[in-house]
Amino acid sequence: MNTQISPEVMGQLEAIVGPSFLFLDQATRREYGHDETEDYVFPPAVLLKPGTPEEIASIMRVANQHEIPVTPIGGRTGLSGGALCIFEGIGLSMERFNKIIHIDEQNLQVMVEPAVITQVLREAVAEKGLFYPPDPSSQGSCFIGGNVAENAGGARAVKYGVTKDYVLNLEVVLPNGQIIWTGANTLKNSTGYNLTQLMVGSEGTLGIVTKIVMKLLPANQYNILMLVPFFDAAQACEAVAQIFKAGVVPSALEFMERDAIDWTLRFVEVSVAIKDAVQAHLLIEVDGNYPDVLFAEAEKITQVVEQFDIDDILFADTDDQKNALWRLRRAVAEAVKSNSIYKEEDTVVPRYELPRLLTGIKSIGQKYGFKSVCYGHAGDGNLHVNIVKGDMTDDAWTTEVPKGIREIFELTVSLKGTLSGEHGIGYVQKNYMDIAFDPITLQLMKGIKQVFDPKGILNPGKVLPDRV
Amino acid sequence: MNTQISPEVMGQLEAIVGPSFLFLDQATRREYGHDETEDYVFPPAVLLKPGTPEEIASIMRVANQHEIPVTPIGGRTGLSGGALCIFEGIGLSMERFNKIIHIDEQNLQVMVEPAVITQVLREAVAEKGLFYPPDPSSQGSCFIGGNVAENAGGARAVKYGVTKDYVLNLEVVLPNGQIIWTGANTLKNSTGYNLTQLMVGSEGTLGIVTKIVMKLLPANQYNILMLVPFFDAAQACEAVAQIFKAGVVPSALEFMERDAIDWTLRFVEVSVAIKDAVQAHLLIEVDGNYPDVLFAEAEKITQVVEQFDIDDILFADTDDQKNALWRLRRAVAEAVKSNSIYKEEDTVVPRYELPRLLTGIKSIGQKYGFKSVCYGHAGDGNLHVNIVKGDMTDDAWTTEVPKGIREIFELTVSLKGTLSGEHGIGYVQKNYMDIAFDPITLQLMKGIKQVFDPKGILNPGKVLPDRV
């Protein structure tokens, strides 16, 4: 690969996007050189802001010919470093692809460009009485294209699934500049290999998504939100599997450790009174169109959690209260970040294994001398583990913590789980991939990458480990 | 490829599976040489019935070394010829992989071997209060492994999704005899390329599935089933999209043309009185745990369909009545088959396009001189088109019908649909793949096939067109 771009090639790139959409200044390159992943900054040699799939195709043809790395950049909210330009080269900001092309009310579908902000999309379809469920915590700033790239989830995934469950068809620019559609605009499809699902979650390493066709659901009218304080964190985890066993599928089932909520209460203006002895909370939502059913389901959930050692359940009575509780939950990552340097892991296990995962993480932390704040989508078995630097020495942070992370992932995989539930592998987790997959399977993935990108120019150094 | 197997290699195969699981007699080979696809018979040179993944691995190593084609064979209910041994070689019957390994009531998951009959699986989990929704019409005899291979759907897909939406993780024997797991037993997974979803629907061309981990749902207790007779078939199709627009997601929404129901009534013992002028029926089910909600949803559906020209709605009052209506619906394909030589297409479009698809199919039939019987999962936009030979000449059947099928698929794709919703491409549809995908995309699929199966020995001559 060529990390340097010759003046001649730079001229070709400028001719493609126009001079106002090519940026060489340090400030812009630095701005686009980071996402939300720890404190990494990898600026591109040049930042481009193309406006059409055809412009991207032209850029890719030039990059392919000269073997220049190209890194697609979305909303830069990623937590695994998927958008970092680790080999410099071309940073390809997708931000001009920001149109909702068509909300198809007849077929309950939407065609959207990748730089539409997830919340904007959710609100636009809601205005038509429709529902796009995936709601990552960063929904106010992340791009739907990034959600596709990372197969993002969010709080509602427990009932409604993740991004992949809504993607029907994708327009994709391949690394060699060819443009394809991966499938059809249908709810069912058994026609050839599922390139659509292969593309979802491939973190911008196989192609650049330029249009997305997604399915929608009819909107729900009602929900009930309850916050359940537990005096024991492992019991909160145990309650999660019991709720499903009782036959209820909540629309959200979130877990927050005591530290997560304490740190966040200092960060956002939400007032919740919490007894000192409370160790964890479950935030539980049920939704639907029939209030009586929701009351019945909330009652079933109450019966389950009351078998554990809990404090009084808080039912959110108003929309304001609901919004406050969600703000609290969504701000945890930012709150931790504002407190300390940290690393965020995105462990996921079968949900009944959560108590074992949580206990194991804490004892691994003790062994290697780090503290962790755990929270996340417990209904999916998806536990975010924020490892905080606090007063650890730099030396311990760089030598001991990676060993601890490796043990956490080994524990996760031994519980039939895996490395990432919804954040992706990207740059920061790639060298743990050998824990989740044997060399044969990694070779298959590498083979697929080579089919799409024989020269290895598209988002290089991501997903697959350095040595495959 | 070697279609002939030397005595020495045959000895190696016998040593692997044991003499009682290797079959060379014509009757067995012929029996395993066909599925439910038209009247095709392609017997293997030898039929093997291995008992473990390791035996399959050993067989694949021998086959790979000697470049002998291997065709995995499941319940032989396929409608696209995916299990036909078109190059003879080894037929690999999976029938001994018939155990439900573990129903995990804590995590709402099941681990199952591929030769478990779908209905057996559904009933086994139902006994534990759990629900495996996909229910292809052949569920009484098809294998769950075949469902995975073809990404099978069924009547409940409209609300609950298809097979792919339940598969979490797969144990797979690769063409070179290596054994891998594709993912993890988790509801969410953003860890590397999605090999699980790539394997689902790949029709046994990339690997041989030996274990399947699937998610389950809590069982629903109630349902309401209604049969709505329409005096105009296109109006029945129009009503489908309107039902969703009214905010109801039925658990089944099936369409049957008049001919489909008439032929089937002669084939199964079910009594339904139908007025002469009725041209089509919708069979509509809603399900859930709250009878009041189901009554409300049935009422909403009634309000929608009453805007069209319909006869009296029949509500199934008893389980017997419900079973009779479902028997009627499920027997359509067999009834048509018993009446005439036929070809079955599995068209799928966005559901609002159904009236245009139906009208188009009829006029294409007139142009080429064939009659068709249409029915299927209208809620998904999935219309099965049975083209019946009736009194067509053999000459017209072999020359005109393929032209008509090509036009039907071109129409389907022009409506943003595709060739197959749930039956797969297999042998009989492969040379129509150029209608759904451009040469670039087909080359990507061929590249993926080569990554998994460089020698092209596993289920050769399926899915991809003869010329890519």
From TrEMBL, chains A, B:
<dbReference type="InterPro" id="IPR006094">
    <property type="entry name" value="Oxid_FAD_bind_N"/>
</dbReference>
<dbReference type="Pfam" id="PF02913">
    <property type="entry name" value="FAD-oxidase_C"/>
</dbReference>
<dbReference type="InterPro" id="IPR016171">
    <property type="entry name" value="Vanillyl_alc_oxidase_C-sub2"/>
</dbReference>
<dbReference type="InterPro" id="IPR016167">
    <property type="entry name" value="FAD-bd_PCMH_sub1"/>
</dbReference>
<dbReference type="InterPro" id="IPR016169">
    <property type="entry name" value="FAD-bd_PCMH_sub2"/>
</dbReference>
<dbReference type="GO" id="GO:0016491">
    <property type="term" value="F:oxidoreductase activity"/>
</dbReference>
<dbReference type="InterPro" id="IPR036318">
    <property type="entry name" value="FAD-bd_PCMH-like_sf"/>
</dbReference>
<dbReference type="GO" id="GO:0071949">
    <property type="term" value="F:FAD binding"/>
</dbReference>
<keyword id="KW-0560">Oxidoreductase</keyword>
<feature type="domain" description="FAD-binding PCMH-type">
    <location>
        <begin position="40"/>
        <end position="219"/>
    </location>
</feature>
<dbReference type="Pfam" id="PF01565">
    <property type="entry name" value="FAD_binding_4"/>
</dbReference>
<dbReference type="InterPro" id="IPR016166">
    <property type="entry name" value="FAD-bd_PCMH"/>
</dbReference>
<protein>
    <submittedName>
        <fullName>Glycolate oxidase</fullName>
    </submittedName>
</protein>
<keyword id="KW-0274">FAD</keyword>
<dbReference type="InterPro" id="IPR016164">
    <property type="entry name" value="FAD-linked_Oxase-like_C"/>
</dbReference>
<keyword id="KW-0285">Flavoprotein</keyword>
<dbReference type="InterPro" id="IPR051914">
    <property type="entry name" value="FAD-linked_OxidoTrans_Type4"/>
</dbReference>
<dbReference type="InterPro" id="IPR004113">
    <property type="entry name" value="FAD-bd_oxidored_4_C"/>
</dbReference>
